[in-house]
Structure formats: C-alpha cells, structure tokens
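Researcher: Quick one. two chains, 826 residues in total.
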Amino acid sequence: MNNSMRQVTPNFSDDATRGLSVVPNTHVLDAMTEQEMPIVSEPKRQVTLNFSDGETRVFSVAPGENILDAALEQDMPVLFQCRSGSCSSCICTLKDGDANTLAGASSTLLPSEYGAGQRLLCVSQAETDCSFELPYSSEVGSNAAHEVNVFIDSIERIAINAVRLTVELADDEWMDFRPGQFMQIAVPGVGVVRSYSPSSTQKTLPKMEFLIRLLPDGVMSKYLEEVAAADDVLTLTGPYGAFFLREEHRRSPHIFVAGGTGLSPILSMIDTLHQSSGRKPPMLLSFGSAHAETLFALEDIQLREQWLPTLEARICASNGAVEGQHPGNPVSALRDDDVKDPNTVAYLCGPQPMIDAATSRLLELGVKAENIFAEHFVASN
Amino acid sequence: MSEQPIIRRRVVKTGISDSRTNNAKTQSQYQPYKDAAWGFINHWYPALFSHELAEDQVEGIQICGVPIVLRRVNGKVYALKDQCLHRGVRLSEKPMCFNKSTITCWYHGFTFDLESGELVTIVANPDDKLIGTTGLTSYPIHEVNGMIFVFVREDDYPDADVPPLADDLPFRFPENSEIFPHPLWPASPSVLDDNAMNLGMHRTGYGNWRIACENGFDNAHILVHKDNTIVHAMDWVLPLGLLPTADDCIAVVENDTGPKGLMQWMFTDKWKPVMENKVLDLKVEGLKGRFYRTSVVLPGVLMVENWPQEHMTQYEWYVPITDDTHEYWEVLVRVCNTEEEREKNQHRFNVVYKPLCLHGFNDCDLYAREAMQNFYTDGTGWDDEQLVSTDVSPITWRKLASRWNRGIAKPGRGVAGSVKDTSLIFKDTADGHRPGYQVRKIPEE
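Model:
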C-alpha cells in the first residue's frame, strides 16, 4: 500500500471508484501547442506566469497588446476585475524581462511600487519576453483540483449496502465543482483515496453530500462503518472529471440513467437544473438496482418529482420489484417513445455493462452519439 | 507536522437554509416554500399604480431583494436594476436623465440604455473599455388598467421564457364559470378586463410575505373580522369560520398554461360555516348572507370574489421586499363602462371601501400577520406550528407553490435589508422613516 496521504492518480482497486483517468495540470503544454500564429511582423513575446503554488503557465502576447487580454484569451487562471488599472486584482511582480504601462493607460500603483517591479496586468504590455510572480495559487483563478478539509456531519445507512455521508467544508476552505464531477476522499489512517461524486450541488456548499456504496472489506467502507464519527476531519481533493452537466444543452430534454450509487452525480445534476433560471427541460430519470431491497434515496426522488413538474422517475429492480417499480434494469425501462426530440441529451452513470447497454439503446432511440455522456463506476475488490 | 495549519469548523449561522442539510428527513414536500423567505423570483408583481409614475418620473422599489428603478418616457414604462454596476448606488435616489433613451447614475455618470440596460457611456469617461461590454438587468413591464406590473427576474433569466402576465394573475370569469360555478354571485371581474377600474392602495407590512399571504385564504382567520364596523353596519352574516367537510374542498389548478393555484369550494357542501360555539356561548348574528370565495395563485395573489359588493373582486398581493418586509397591495376591481360609472365607483371607493374595507376590515389582517412574525422569523415556527383541519388551505398552497414557482429568490445581496443592523437603518428610524418599499429621494438643496 502506498503511504502517501496525497495521491493524484484517481483509480483504485476497491469500493465504488471511477474508471475515468485524469491527467492533472498539463496546461503548460496546451498553451504552448495551441499558440496562434502571429499576424504582425514583429514576433510575439513569451510571458511566463509563476503562481504561488509552484504552477507555471506560459502564453504569448503581441507587442503593444494588453497582457491581461492575451492571458484571458489563452485561459490563464489570472484574477482581474476592473480591467482599467484601478482595483489591483491583477497585481503581480515582474521578475525577468521588460514590461511597462500601455500608452494612454493609468495605474494606481505608486511610483515606489512600480519601481519595485509591481505591475497591473490589465494596463501592461510586454516589451520583451518576461516572467511574473503572482501572489496567489493557480487554483484560485480556475476550477483546478485542490485539497480541502471537511468535517463529517453525519453518516446515515440508506440501504443494506449504501450510506449517505454529509460533510461540511472547514472554515476558510472552499471547493467549487460542476454537477457530476467527483472528488477523492482520503481514507484516514490508511493512506489511500477513493473517488466519489457529490449528490449535492454548488448551492448547498459549504455542505456536501455523497451517496456511497459499501463493499465487503472495502477500506472506505470499513472506515465509514466502524470508525467514522461526526466531527471527524476528512481530506478531499478535486474536483475532477469531464462528466458534468453541459450548460449548452440545458434546454434540451434530459434522460438520466443511473445504476446504484451512480445516482449520486445524477441527483446533483437534477438539482442543479431545478435551481437554474428559466424554463426547466423535460427530464426522465431511470434509476435501478439489482434487488429492490438495495434501492435507496427513493424519498429524495419522490420529493424531486413533487418539486419538478417536468421530472418523471422510473424506479427499477431486476429482482423483487414491488408495485410501481419496473421489473428489470434501468435500461430496459426506457421506452420507444422516450426520445421525441433529436437534441435529447443523456447522462449515464453506473456499472460499465449498464452504460454500454444504455448507450446502444439510446442511439437506437435516436439520441445523437455526441449528446450521450457517461461515467462508470469500477466496483471491484 | 508542525506546519500543519489548524482546521476549524465553520461558525454555525442561524436561518433555515444554512442550518438544513439536504436530507430527506428534514425536508418536506414544501421545503422549497420554506426556503423562499425572499420570495419567488421570475414572476410578475405589481410595481406601482399608473398614477404614481407620471411622464419622466423616476421611482425606485425593491422586490424579492432586487432593487428596481422605473422611468416613464413617452408614456412607456422601463425598468432596470436599481444598482449601478460601478459602486452600487441606486439610480433612483437622485434621478439623472440626459435624454429619452437612457438613465444616468448621478454619482459617476455611468449611463444605461433604458430598454436593454446596456452601459452606453460614462459621462466623464466616454472611451472606457467597459462601455458596451456590460449593463444592468432589465425587467419586462406590463401596464394595464391603472396598474404597472414588473417581471422580476434573475439576471440570466431568458427573455424567451417570460410568460404572459395572465399566467401570474387569478382565474378569470366567465371563462372559468363552468369549472368553478358561482350560483350565488355574478361572474367576477378581473384586473385585465376591458374597462376594469383597479382602485386600491399599497403599504409596507412588517413581516415575511408568506405569513401575510397565508392569512387571506385561511378559512379560520375570519374570526378577526367578527366586530369590524362594516360587518355590523351592513348586517352581514360572517361565520366564525369555515370547516372542510370533504377531501375535495380545494381544487388545485395545474394546467400547462395559465395560472397555477388553488380554488376553494366555499359556500358549497364542501365547507361548513360555523355559526356558533356552544362552549363559549357565541353566536353569529346578522341578517344578510355575505357569500364570497377565496382563491390564490402564484406568486401569491389572493382573489376574493363577490367582495365587498356584487360585481366587485378584491385582489391582494404580498410582494416580498426583503425576508421581513413585504408590500401589501389591496385592489378593488370593478368594470365601469361609462364615465358616470367611473365617477360613482371612485366616489364610493373614497367614502366607503377605502376607509371601511381596505382600512377598517383589512387593517385587522395586517396586525394579525405582524403578530405571527416573531414565531416564524428565526425559522423555528415552520417546525413548531401545530396545524388543524382548517389549515388544509395553507398546506395545499405551500405544496403547489413549491412545485410551480419559477425560482426561489436568493437572499438580497448589497441591498437594503440584507443586513438588519446597519447605522443607516437606525438613522432612518430615528429620523422617522420606517423601512419601506419605495426609495426616498435625496432632498434637493
């Protein structure tokens, strides 16, 4: 076993973990390879940004071009606000090279500060290649993964093999995430991490909720069942993952297919749509489990049906389905007339066989391949 | 390990939304309603009576924690967010308009297009980069029969999704006479009817809008009106209360289009009027049956049909200003087809309806609602209230409002009332100004 508390690779061998691999922080390469060809004859300057967390990003700027504008165009995680040399949000310190104030612009820097190398990016131009030190970490200006501490509020058994873990971010700590993304939770005292998606949304922060499947002999399962108590501190890293609610499809009909605790990110997506502004799209949730007795969160789903007139939920159980439940898996619960709109978008989360079956069924029903988003759980031991 | 920073728990703040975790046990079917302390956003609300906004006049109001400035130009009313994007000053405090198509912030000259809200220039900084890239949220306006309605929306609520005003107004008659028959009175007039005269008043109530809203269609509340002057002067028979006698005593309306709300089958066999209480030796006297019917639709609009006279309807709104203030609107609707009828109606409003009904009768409602406020203000009342059978009306309303609202207003940010103990509130109070709905203008020298 690895003893490090901070592991970055997201794949692990047991509990309900993710099959998605994440390569952290490779933006330096991206920025350099995606550099546009300069239009002006004079060559572009190369600007290096050194963030307080040791991250380095490089981008290019044309002579006479506003450095902040160029940085934002190239997705640099820089802070800014007024863009007019006043508020000092974009303040940084010039370390190498030459950069000065754009013609016609003014800055609130004192001459002594300017002399000491301080610059406001929003009114600066690069005379030569240059590098800046930024007084904040690269995570601040972006949604990049970082580590936070949370306190356990409660651990509630919601099925024979599932718990609901609710936590609260520690004082002065924060983690934004998109609905569907996941975090890694370090198992205290063991030195390994497990990946879980919150079922809660950005709006309920600093509170977060996770639906977690318990596996025999899983280290996290053991911890949650035998050790964890309210007010214990856990370490989370994240957010990770490209499985998240796509803003650009917000107005299209949504189909969600969830197996087991794959429901967790799906609930986050449904709640986010509920909280969003404007008309709500039609939503179909097909959620299932192998046995009716291992189903959970049915009250949560019922409440959402009550609150959201456009949500229809189908609860499925391959074995032991009771009245009102679909006897079968959540894919077989999909019907021929479920896809009426060619722009229907689908989110699938559960075991790989379910995702495969759901994908081919949805394609058959007329959902476009590019509108199907999936993430699978690896539940191995 | 010595460099390990100390990890602290957050300090727990009071308030419903903060204290609840997203867990089904503490949630109810009307949890969204409990969360709507600052109101339901993305709905139509009355802003002002037409006569309160003359040509070129500028007024500021606040609804659901959203400050809104209104200006009338060439007869048309425009509404923008009343919070300059530069430093947050309310444009309406000292109106400054240099032309017919814009409004300018009197402080640093940020100038906004009335129609789109776009920042079109800055008086002393006309080449600033910010110009053309940003602006204030605009709010759709619908002015009808003497009332100005505003669609109060979140900043990113799309224009295409703005529903017609009629979707946020009570059920209309005779269109619904078949569904909701009214054998004891003629078809009720509506605010939207041709030649409707909408006479009324609005004032600030010091309590949460939900507490106010739930009063009007609560069939046990009429006890507070037992000894109102108009009831005795007119010899009206007003029961001590009405008791539900059937499961279907309330009809819930959830059609795809049109208003969402509830209609109560009053003065049918589904509600039993209570005329006496033998334990207390109480008996209702009076000669003339006073039949009426209450209904409520989102975002919280009360309709009292056949009230206070035949051919009249009383409408009420409880427009959220903050989480502890609302603007209480009372409007009496009557269709008047001739100038003579209009004059007669106006006169009767002035000498009878306004003093005896809107004040005499409804003043009791106002203080009764304020009397409930302390119980609910810290959130505990929602859990501690002990409901009885007549509360079927508010509970049905809470559930349907939870389902059909178009959004829950976020607590006001950077606006009057978002913090309750600022020196400005004390100063205004000491100067004799209550917290209110309309912006007080900076006095001219």
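The domain at 247-379 of chain A is CATH 3.40.50.80 (Rossmann fold).
Researcher: Thanks, that's what I needed.
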